[in-house]
Structure to design on (803 residues):
């Protein structure tokens, strides 16, 4: 039984949750210094525990590197009818699972998360709602860590929705700005589409396997009762991938991510580049046992990934907003990760996820430092010549750009080149032309990546200044709380790839591919999957590696030629291919298309809304609600009539009879003393009269 | 000498006037005055029979009744003042709290 940090792993999500609670309940009364220390401190605490747990996991033998802790039963046992007809029991525990995959994830999330928290202290220093920002950010950390530590699909879904909520709250952080509020809503609504698929996939998982825990599903798969291409598994994988498409911004659900750049830049770095958007990749990697049984869906994953990669890269090449370029770059890199997963190279996908987290967080934070220095300017056409003025930002940004472009020995080279090679090698055995097409697309994307990243670098930091004089006057390097995280992330972007050096380069030097080796136990194929034994040629791998380096360098050279040497070339190109440029510049009009079809459309958009509205007002409200109201009123009227005339009537009738009968007695008792005296005197007079009449003879006799 | 039955007729007339006054008038002061008439009618009877029978105890009774009447008038007026303070009226018709 593991001891120490692994036993404490529940602290990893709990610490940020506690400070989020403090922030959102009491934050407005705390001074900024307390908020900064508390929020960064709890995330740092999570990072320490994660690092400790990771090291302890490393010390264990490879096959024992699984630690599961069940905190409490979340959903108590319920009877469940399985699809196979057997009776099952549905029970969900709130449990955490630490295995190589989730250990890597918590390390990346808490590590990058901590650096971005520290950076935020400087970036958000002059903003209102400081406590709200950090409260949401810590809540996000809690949800993201719940997501990656969950030991079952339902708890993963809780984290999944939680990070979606935090994403919504933070995109709309400046909610008084209409575009920010709209972008938040757009992100939330687009994600709903994917999440609906994810939820259906979870339902299908529950009724197919009778359990939602990863261990339970893997045990069932290892039992060999599900063959390759099993219909239920294919359906589950397809639905789960729809969820992944929403969260990780893949075609057709990528449209929310560029708009999400309305949020504060550290948020874009943490949520919309380094961690949350990679949740889809993590989920697919986590469900690798299922995906390996559904090669058709794997092909779809690979295809969607590759198409998204090149599609987003093409849009990134012409955008002028520094953050939007990075957003399209993120979509493109996520496409690479899905391509890797789709080619069965889940470990490589996760490897690219971690290196991407370093250099994309670095690039976003660098762009944030530029925007900060330029008083909020985001248009790269109004930048230029910043290399000397922002030395730290410029150098670290250049490191990030080199890393993402795939220049050895920086992090991006190893992960991206491995994806290209695994696509070409086609271990998973996709049909003949597909891998080569995908490889071609991915390689072309690599050139485009190098081009648009260095377009950004050259336009921002080189050439002549195109800044407004007023803005130029205020340019200043960022405070230390911002530059130190930049430098650490730049360091990680350089060395982050060295843990996954491919065998071709590593073997001669005696360096193993530690990363892939570490993750191997998680991505063991179910016994029913037979992998084709393909002979890989070292020569081909070496040539392809050389080619990708040359192409990356070519992309950078083109960018240099276009934007430093001869700025008239891109202008001329844009003029000569006006139609194409307009199409790409306007993001292929996909937003407009979605708007036309799903928002304004007669069938799926407003038309359906109106029809549903009419149905609601005429049938649901008209017949259902109004009808039942009418019925209630009618029966209550009958009831009132019965009550008034029969129930009350009987009582009133009795009272009237008594009233009539006692009329004489009542008139006697008037309360008037004189009337009483009259009756008394009258009575006495009557007695007297009677007495006199009886004794008349006595009176007469006395006379 | 005036015969006794003249006195008795006078007393009967006074008594009748007094009773009618008590029963018909609405002002408490008049009612109290009518009561005095009734008492004095009795006094006349007592004094008349005392003279006829030659016994002075009838006249002693008349003196007693005059004394009691004075006390009764004082009590009656006291009640009247208390009534006026509480109800601002001396009208017997407006005082009907005795009814159930």
């Amino acid at each position: 039984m593991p001891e120490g940090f692994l036993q404490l792993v529940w602290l990893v999500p709990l610490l940020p949750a506690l400070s989020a609670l403090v922030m959102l309940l009491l934050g407005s009364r705390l001074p900024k210094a307390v908020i900064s220390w508390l929020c960064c401190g709890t995330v740092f605490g999570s990072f320490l525990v994660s690092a400790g747990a990771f090291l302890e996991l490393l010390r264990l033998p490879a096959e024992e590197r699984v630690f599961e802790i069940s905190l409490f039963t979340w959903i108590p046992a319920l009877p469940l009818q399985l699809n196979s007809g057997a009776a099952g029991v549905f029970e969900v525990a709130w449990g955490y699972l630490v295995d190589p995959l989730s250990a890597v994830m918590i390390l990346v999330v808490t590590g990058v998360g901590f650096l971005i928290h520290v950076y935020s202290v400087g970036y958000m220093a002059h903003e209102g709602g400081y406590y709200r920002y950090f409260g949401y950010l810590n809540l996000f950390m809690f949800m993201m860590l719940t997501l990656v530590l969950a030991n079952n699909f339902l708890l993963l879904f809780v984290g999944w929705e939680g990070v979606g909520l935090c994403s919504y709250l933070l995109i709309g952080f400046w909610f008084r700005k209409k575009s920010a509020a709209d972008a938040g809503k757009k992100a939330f609504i687009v994600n709903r589409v994917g999440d609906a698929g994810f939820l259906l996939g979870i339902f299908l998982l529950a009724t197919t396997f009778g359990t939602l825990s990863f261990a339970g599903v893997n045990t069932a798969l290892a039992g060999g009762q599900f063959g390759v291409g099993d219909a239920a598994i294919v359906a589950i994988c397809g639905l789960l991938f729809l969820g992944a498409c929403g969260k990780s911004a893949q075609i057709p659900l990528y449209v929310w991510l560029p708009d999400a750049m309305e949020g504060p830049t550290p948020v874009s770095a943490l949520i919309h580049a380094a961690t949350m958007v990679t949740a889809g990749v993590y989920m697919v990697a986590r469900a690798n046992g299922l995906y390996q049984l559904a090669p058709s869906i794997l092909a779809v994953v690979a295809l969607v990934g590759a198409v998204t990669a090149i599609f987003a890269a093409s849009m990134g090449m012409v955008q002028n907003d520094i953050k939007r370029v990075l957003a399209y770059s993120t979509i493109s890199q996520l496409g690479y990760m899905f391509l890797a997963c789709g080619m069965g190279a889940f470990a490589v996908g996760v490897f690219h996820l971690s290196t991407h987290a370093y250099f994309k967080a670095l690039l976003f934070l660098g762009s944030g430092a530029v925007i900060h220095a330029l008083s909020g300017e985001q248009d790269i056409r109004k930048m230029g010549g910043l290399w000397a003025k922002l030395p730290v930002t410029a150098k670290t940004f250049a490191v990030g750009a080199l890393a993402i472009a795939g220049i050895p020995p920086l992090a991006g080279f190893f992960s991206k080149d491995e994806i290209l090679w695994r696509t070409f090698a086609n271990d998973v055995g996709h049909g003949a032309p597909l891998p080569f097409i995908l490889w071609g697309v991915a390689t072309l994307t690599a050139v485009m990546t190098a081009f648009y990243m260095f377009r950004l670098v050259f336009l921002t930091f080189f050439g002549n200044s195109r800044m407004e004089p007023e803005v130029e006057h205020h340019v200043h390097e960022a405070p230390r709380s911002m530059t130190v995280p930049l430098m650490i992330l730049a360091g990680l972007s350089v060395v982050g790839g060295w843990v996954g050096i491919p065998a071709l380069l590593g073997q001669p030097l005696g360096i193993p591919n530690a990363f892939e080796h570490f993750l191997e136990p998680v991505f063991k194929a179910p016994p029913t999957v037979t992998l084709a034994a393909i002979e890989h040629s070292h020569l081909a791998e070496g040539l392809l590696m050389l080619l990708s380096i040359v192409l990356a360098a070519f992309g950078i050279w083109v960018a240099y030629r276009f934007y430093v040497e001869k700025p008239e070339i891109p202008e001329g190109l844009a003029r000569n291919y006006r139609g194409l440029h307009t199409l790409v510049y306007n993001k292929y009009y996909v937003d407009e298309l979605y708007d036309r079809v799903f928002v304004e459309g007669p069938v799926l958009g407003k038309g359906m809304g109106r029809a549903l509205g009419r149905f609601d007002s005429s049938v649901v409200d008209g017949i259902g609600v109004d009808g039942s109201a009418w019925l209630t009123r009618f029966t209550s009227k009958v009831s009132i009539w019965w009550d008034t005339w029969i129930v009350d009537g009987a009582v009133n009738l009795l009272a009237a009879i008594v009233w009539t009968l006692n009329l004489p007695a009542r008139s006697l008792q008037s309360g008037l003393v004189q009337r009483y005296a009259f009756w008394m005197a009258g009575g006495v007079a009557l007695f007297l009269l009677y007495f006199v009449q009886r004794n008349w003879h006595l009176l007469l006799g006395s006379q | 000498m005036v015969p006794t039955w003249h006195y008795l007729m006078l007393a009967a007339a006074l008594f009748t006037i007094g009773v009618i006054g008590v029963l018909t008038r609405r002002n408490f002061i008049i009612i109290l005055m009518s009561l005095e008439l009734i008492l004095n009618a009795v006094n006349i009877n007592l004094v008349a029979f005392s003279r006829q029978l030659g016994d002075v105890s009838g006249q002693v009774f008349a003196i007693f009744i005059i004394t009691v009447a004075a006390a009764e008038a004082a009590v009656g007026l006291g009640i009247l003042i208390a009534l006026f303070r509480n109800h601002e009226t001396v009208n017997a018709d407006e005082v009907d709290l005795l009814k159930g």
User: Anything to note?
Assistant: Chain B has three helices and no strands.
